[in-house]
Amino acid sequence: MTARHLLLSACVVFALSVVVAAQGPPRAWWAPGQGTQLSDFATYNNDRGELGVLNASGRLDTRGHPFFEPIGTNGRACVTCHQPGDAMALSVRSVRERWAATGGKDPLFAPVDGMNCPNLPPDDPRSHSLLLERGLIRVSLPWPPTRPDGTRIDPEFTIDVVRDPSGCNTDPVYGLQSANPSISVFRRPRVAANTKYTTHQNFGVSPFIGKNGMPAATDPLTGKPTSMNLMSDARAPTLAVQAEDAAKNHLQIKASLSAEQIARIVEFERQVYVAQAISTSAGNLVEADGPPALGPRNLAAGDAGVLGNNTTRYVFPLGGKWAHLDRTSDAAENVRSAARESIARGHDVFMFRTFWIKDSMHLNSVGLGNPTKRTCATCHGMHMTGMDTANGWMDIGTTNLPWASEVPLNPWNEAKPQMPLFRVTCKPTVKEHPFLGRVIYTQDPGRALISGQCNDVGTIVMQQFRGLSARAPYFSNGSATTLRELVDFYDRRYNIGYSEQEKQDLVNFLGAL
Amino acid sequence: MNAHRVTGGVALLLAGWLASGAVLTIRADEQRKNFVSCPIVRDTASVPCWLTEYEGEMYFLTVQSDVTAPVTPPWLGHRVLVEGTVSTEPRICGGIVLKPVHLSVLPERDASCNTMLPAEERYNLTFEPPRPPGPSKGRLAFDNSPPAAPLAPAASTREFVIRYDFDRLVGFSHAGLLSQVLDFARTGDAREIEIVGYRGAVLLSNGQTMVEEQTIGKQRAEQVSMLLQGANLRGPSYKVSWQDQSANASGVDDYLSRRVVVTVRR
Q1: What are the angstrom distances between the C-alpha of B182 and each of A91, B101, B156, B177, B235?
Q2: pLDDT value for B155
Q3: Which residues pair with B49 in a beta bridge?
Q4: Terminal CA-to-CA distance of chain A, rounded, Å?
Q5: How many CB atoms lie within 10 A of CB A178?
């Protein structure tokens, strides 16, 4: 290691420690194998208040539990990337705190996927820049893709690496031209909670996908079609399959998970609920007579797999509780009332504020017309979670150019792109992508890496809206650092023209979920 | 009927009937409008209207609705094949109402199809929007899902006709019908599935004929076979064929020629 290299690394570590210090005291980190109990209801601090974590089945003794024990070879457990305090996901704040606390020795930073590429120097924070700066885990997928039965899919497109900041996609061992051709994309861990919603068997679940008529992925145990809403590319149809996939690829387990281990992991994930419980500005979100959408207990009691894009059963029912609150002589009470009214207004922006949704694959292409004048709730329609009810992959431009966030390149900007960039060329034998044409540039082909279909390039399964305050940054590639940046992305993408008040209200509403 | 056996008087009557029928056909055909054009979307205070212009006249195609609508809106950025009949209904959003109408979004992109018109007070819709632009009142706009056909327990064969937009394969609107095929085959332990793909053609109002791509019948038949087997319907034997020859286009209901016929035998 050269002196310049050491100096640069020291600078990065110092910068990270400054960022961590600015974010306040560290949050509780759940270490693999720590063996403590997870209470039936616990709260965890975050920037906007406190997250509530509910174990509907009661207090859990985590000793020997496969979700909490380091059952792989790299010291990690499921809980490493699905932290209770981070809404059973992983915030970049926690990542930075772990780096600061352990000097990068925490199993979270394992070379397999906690580094930009496994062949980089492990102690250098720059080797982990995508995890440290955007909370991204490397996901290596075989190319071309294969079906669940192992047969190879003939993809509708060719793929080239245009830009490879991690070096992994052009690496002779790990890259596209290696002996085992693979594509590395970088994605945020998803919420391992509220799973009765993400795995429901209700509205929209069908043997054929409602967006394109293709066969839906089935549960290998029952043969039943699934909602395909678990992962960002829908590659794992069930919690059990996801657990096996994660144990192999993220925990580097040597043998397969046992049936008992899978059952215990799934059982835990089926009963844990997360949602914001306390708002710094709006106070207690889970009062007995409060809005019926808020808090983890309401989530546990809600109906799963129900379309909520209607006025008889809202996506996030607030029950009109906070629309207009009387002011009193208590200034603090008035501040709280104003914050609650902002949340209620934000709900109405989400539900009723129309805008033109244009050129979004699997939204405009599924019978609504292009463009369609609708609202946030049109796509984010599942009751209580704001996901699509089934088969929720769409391209809203978070990873596809020209809308994906890219570093502005000019002689006065020293920042360099962090994300890979791929050029996807649809073969002459298939029709071109209806909105993007035959050549598509993308940071992450998303569902297309599994289906091999041109129309799926850059489509990502939308995430649930719960516990957002605990798990920044947002979007599958972590491109929105804050909820405000998330709202700004939509405002820019669809030329919505939100007022400043609408943006703030929407942020407050999302932050209360 | 054997024409050679027709008596003189009857032949005269038949000739007259045929002649009058021909006139009626010509008049009916004048009401048929088959053409390719750019769609236009007009905003209103409620739901947007979808229109198109052809030979200097504005036609109303549909309103924005939801996926349950029998006619779903076209796409800006693409031309649309319109196969419609001029109705006697009052104009909507300034356009002559085509009803029934079949719309096919053409696969090729066309950046010139980009007209969005602003709302004008004179174009307020006077009917309840089937589906408002925001959340509905708890119902879907239409309930046009085909009723489950009552099947006699002994029914051993059933034919399913899958219809397509021009030059298109299976899409979002086919999931329901494919599920019906699957259900029928599974519940009866089907032994054979015969799939025949067809290639359509449309006689346009300007006299030109639009023919689907050469191999579309093959593509459709093979895709349906692949989809059913992909849904784990692997027990029956599959008999897959297609017709490369396009159907004869008459300008009347030519959309019916774009199809796959699936016959399930149990």
Answers
A1: 44, 29, 14, 9, 12
A2: 79
A3: B42, B63
A4: 46
A5: 14
Name the residue in chain B with its Cα closest to that of A147. Answer: B230
Query: Looking at beta carbons, which residues of chain A come within 8 Å of B171?
Result: 212-213, 365
Contact A366 B172 (CB under 8 A): yes
Confidence band, pLDDT 50/70/90 cuts, at residue A20: very low
What is the C-alpha to C-alpha distance for residues B22 and B250, in angstroms, rounded to an integer? Answer: 13
Distances A509 to A282, A342, A415, A503 between C-alpha atoms, Å: 10, 7, 33, 10
B23 Cβ neighbours under 8 A, 6+ residues apart:
none
d(CA A189, CA A186): 10
d(C-alpha A71, C-alpha A257), whole Å = 9
What the block records as the tokens of A287 is: 């009062």
Q: Are A210 and A217 in contact (CB under 8 A)?
A: no
Distance between CA atoms of A346 and A499, rounded to whole angstroms?
12
Structure ipTM: 0.91
- Which residue of B lies nearest to A368 if distances are taken between CA atoms? B66
Of A209, A377, A435, the CB nearest to B77: A435
**Which one, of A402, A401, A377, A381, lies nearest residue A391 by Cα?**
A381
Residue A55's DSSP bridge partners are A272
CA distance B68 to chain A (A): 8
* Residue A272: CB atoms within 10 Å: 25
Q: How many Å apart are CA B19 and CA A401, to the nearest integer?
A: 61
CB atoms within 10 A of CB A33: 15
A residues 201..220 contacting B (CB < 8 A): 206-216, 218
All residues of chain B having their beta carbon less than 8 Å from the beta carbon of residue A208 are 174-175, 178-179, 182, 227, 231
Strands B57-63 and B96-109: parallel
Amino acid at B116: M
pLDDT at residue B28, rounded to an integer: 53
Q: Name which of A304, A300, A239 is nearest A273 in CA terms.
A: A300
φ and ψ at residue A278, rounded to 5 degrees: -130, 135
Tokens representing A487? 């709202």
Report CB contact under 8 Å: B108, A215. no
Closest-CA residue of B relative to A311 is B137
Nearest to A94 by CA among A105, A111, A82, A112: A82
Whether B95 contacts B60, CB under 8 Å: yes
Share of chain A above pLDDT 90, in %: 93
Q: Which residue of B has its CA nearest to A375?
A: B134
pLDDT in tens, A434-470: 999 999 999 999 999 999 999 999 999 999 999 999 9
What is the rounded CA–CA span in Å between residue A314 and residue A347?
10
**Residue B153: its pLDDT value, please?**
57
Residue found by looking up tokens 């804050």 in the block: A482
Which of these, A335, A358, A316, lies nearest to A511 by C-alpha position? Answer: A316
Nearest to A310 among B109, B138, B172 (CB): B138
Question: Which residues, in sequence order, are bridge partners of residue B86?
Answer: B98
For testing contact with chain B, the best of A348, A373, A453, A455 (most B CBs within 10 A): A373
pLDDT in tens, B32-80: 999 999 999 999 999 999 999 999 999 999 999 888 888 999 999 999 9
Residue A389 forms contact with B (CB below 8 Å): no
Model pLDDT, residue A148: 87
**Number of other CB atoms surrounding residue B23 within 10 Å:** 10
Arithmetic mean of pLDDT over chain A: 94
Task: Enumerate residues 8 to 27 of chain B having a beta carbon within 8 A of any beta carbon in chain A.
Answer: none
Burial of B192 from C-beta contacts in 10 A (0-12 / 13-18 / 19+): middle
Residues of chain B with Cβ-Cβ distance to A212 below 8 Å are: 170-172
Cα torsion B135, B139, B142, B148: sign = positive
